[in-house]
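New to this. Please check this fold:
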Amino acid sequence: QVRLVESGGGLVQAGGSLRLSCAASGIVFRIKAMGWYRQAPGKQRELVADITGLGNTNYAGSVKGRFTISSDNAKNMVTLQMNSLKPEDTAVYYCNIKAQGQREYDYWGQGIQVTVSS
């Protein structure tokens, strides 16, 4: 059974920092990429950042320069360091892992709340 367990969310003042972590277990296929998405109230889920198995990273324009994604492939863990947080970063953040078997598999965490107060 695949499990993605997220941690590190919470409430922070604007300008502050948070670190999100996601630990995955039970994935038997090759992991193509790990990443973070977020969904604010009334908005669609959007990609925040992802990282491939080779270490190539991709960031949303709104977080570039403030957020840093990293991974530990041996431990199936992905981390998102969020600095200089803004109220508009407030959302539920979801860990995502894409794996490749005979088809692509898309795994999601349960979501973790990040709230940035002004």
Q: What stands out?
A: The longest strand covers residues 30-39. The chain is about 0% helix and 60% strand. The chain has a mean pLDDT of 96. The two ends are 40 Å apart (CA to CA).
